User: Fold these one by one.
Assistant:
Number 1:
Amino acid sequence: AQKITQTQPGMFVQEKEAVTLDCTYDTSDQSYGLFWYKQPSSGEMIFLIYQGSYDEQNATEGRYSLNFQKARKSANLVISASQLGDSAMYFCAMREVSTNAGKSTFGDGTTLTVKP
Amino acid sequence: EAQVTQNPRYLITVTGKKLTVTCSQNMNHEYMSWYRQDPGLGLRQIYYSMNVEVTDKGDVPEGYKVSRKEKRNFPLILESPSPNQTSLYFCASSLGGTGTRGARQPQHFGDGTRLSIL
């Protein structure tokens, strides 16, 4: 069974600094997709970035990048140059090929607060 | 505008009174899914659908029903709601495809439905 662990319930970062949000996962699949979503206080879920298990390069999307270490089963999200609008809850999620990508598992989330 | 629409956004009801939360997407997505979000527990998958007439259980299906008669709609039915089903519910959709193609698709979420069962 797939499992996502986010060990940081809350994180603080100073505006304009970089921050890393941790995500480790457990799967017996060789092929899977990893995702990060942002949930602001308004409640909607926003897709940020995707990493495939067979992708050789770490994913990047603007200020977001993934530090993907397959052997360690970790996919940490790095946010560079934090902005006040980055304050939100962040979820790591996974879809496995073995379940035909139907099942989707989320971590418990990390609440990020950006300080001015 | 591409979107996933859930209704109602808020609902307060009583134990045992059947209710349906509707979900509709206009992106022609094959895959749809329902989640519940409870404090400290992240999102937990209730049911998902790979395509029309194809549904399967997620991690917490007890007390819920779904149907997928049309590609765009995926209603969530609570036949006899109980207080432990008080939660924030999200519907999501994505492009489909089994295997590797499906596993790389990000999900698009509705704005959520906050249910309170008294």
Note: The longest strand of chain A covers residues 88-96.
Number 2:
Amino acid sequence: QKEVEQNSGPLSVPEGAIASLNCTYSDRGSQSFFWYRQYSGKSPELIMFIYSNGDKEDGRFTAQLNKASQYVSLLIRDSQPSDSATYLCAVNNMNRDDKIIFGKGTRLHILP
Amino acid sequence: EAGVAQSPRYKIIEKRQSVAFWCNPISGHATLYWYQQILGQGPKLLIQFQNNGVVDDSQLPKDRFSAERLKGVDSTLKIQPAKLEDSAVYLCASSLGGGLAAVTGELFFGEGSRLTVL
């Protein structure tokens, strides 16, 4: 079983709508969870991190964590064409220093 | 502040040839990572250094890949001999270390080195 699973997409969302991206992880020892955005031909950039159950909001982005279900999600409100990218879910297991493991990513298309 | 530097940006080689990639992390960053990203997939961690010691190299194909981090600063990743399936972008990233990235996920990536093996 892969450590971090994501639907590869593409996920198509109309401009102005809410985009919902999901991720599950297998290691119950995972402590922190991250969302990165990667534009085509570019390197990943960190959007948000979350380590407590519940929601964490930052502007148009909300990360949600449910450790009991081993589930992480990212909501993007008021989606813009510039949000079109691949979104990578990543996790860290505190027992493994600063090791960060990525999922395969979900491609998101915002339709104008 | 200068970012993570990588070279070369692009490399095309034939199978069974060798190739080396170089990475210079952000000054003061103790942790250095090499990730392999095959088209359509997420980054796969190959090796992680803390200063000049290896923290994790469990996913590094050691029969053909090698990496070193001299004096805890620059790093080189070598592939010899290359196979077709090694075609990928090789991403170098760095972080301050000390467990900070474990909490914040704050990795600083270079622009990557794109390898094509023919």
Note: The radius of gyration of chain A is 13 Å.
Number 3:
Amino acid sequence: RKEVEQDPGPFNVPEGATVAFNCTYSNSASQSFFWYRQDCRKEPKLLMSVYSSGNEDGRFTAQLNRASQYISLLIRDSKLSDSATYLCVVTALNYGGSQGNLIFGKGTKLSVKP
Amino acid sequence: SQTIHQWPATLVQPVGSPLSLECTVEGTSNPNLYWYRQAAGRGLQLLFYSVGIGQISSEVPQNLSASRPQDRQFILSSKKLLLSDSGFYLCAWDWDRGFDNEQFFGPGTRLTVL
């Protein structure tokens, strides 16, 4: 099983649509979870952290299910500017002896069309 | 505020040539520093991390090396580049306050080995 798995997409949606991304992780010892956004040929940028209770930031909602080792990101009212690749990220604490390292999924590509 | 710089932004090098990529962080002290590589169509791969001056941990065997001569400077080097070294090299930092922290990325260096 891959450490962090995401549907690669692409997700092609019209403006205003609601889109959901899913992610599963294999290391049950992971403590922290994040969603990053990466624009084409640019560096990843932190979109939001993911908390056990779920959290919301404007049009973005992230949820975590530790029992299922599953993370989700919901984007409501999609904008053209949301087009990017969304990376699911978990920590690798105590995994293979590495501390504090982030494990990145390969990302899900989103394309929002007019 | 903290900023992270990388240079050069792009680089085209012949196989067998040496490499030196530089990363510097401003606005913080004693950060953890990281080098990642993102190959075309693949996820981010952690290459090295450093928790302090002169302290380097390697995540994968390869013909690359890293050094941290100053607190906020991180250098990625190679004596002889391979074709497989092509990719997008990203430097990142996080706070030295334990682990499980989100990381912040520099703008990256796009390396093409011919």
Note: DSSP finds no helices and eleven strands in chain B.
Number 4:
Amino acid sequence: DQQVKQNSPSLSVQEGRISILNCDYTNSMFDYFLWYKKYPAEGPTFLISISSIKDKNEDGRFTVFLNKSAKHLSLHIVPSQPGDSAVYFCAASTGFQKLVFGTGTRLLVSP
Amino acid sequence: EAGVAQSPRYKIIEKRQSVAFWCNPISGHATLYWYQQILGQGPKLLIQFQNNGVVDDSQLPKDRFSAERLKGVDSTLKIQPAKLEDSAVYLCASRDPRVETQYFGPGTRLLVL
């Protein structure tokens, strides 16, 4: 039973455009959501997070949106840069416990 | 601030052999996690420690996997005997108990032949 789903295995965008990565979840008990970026041969790097009491959180070029009624969150990267090319994982947790990860979306930003 | 350290970075063994991985968390992080990431999947929790006590090991295959964190700092994860399906990246993460964000090490890539 996959509680966190990233239905797009890959996404290609041009440099300077917006990248939108999507994530859906099924467990309504999740109260904290995170996005991690992963380069080859490295561990996941924390990018941005959002608590379930908010619907938006921004950090520079990165914005995460949370729609609790739809059990959906998205990560917006504006503008996209070639260095953003990586695999992006969505993760969720309940009450400071384990993270449940999606399967990842590979983002390719071309110059 | 130093990040999570893991060693070795790569390991190749034959099935039925044993292997051990080491993790040193971020200083002051009382909570430590071991995750297994199989190719094409997201990381999956194996075990969670709070200081040197186990909080969650429900998904740890206890017949072959073991982990310890004796002094509440470093941790080791052992597989004995290894199976082909254990080929994966083993990630260690740590967290300050006051916040939710987990920080990951670079991982150990294990190949079982």
Note: The mean pLDDT of chain B is 94.
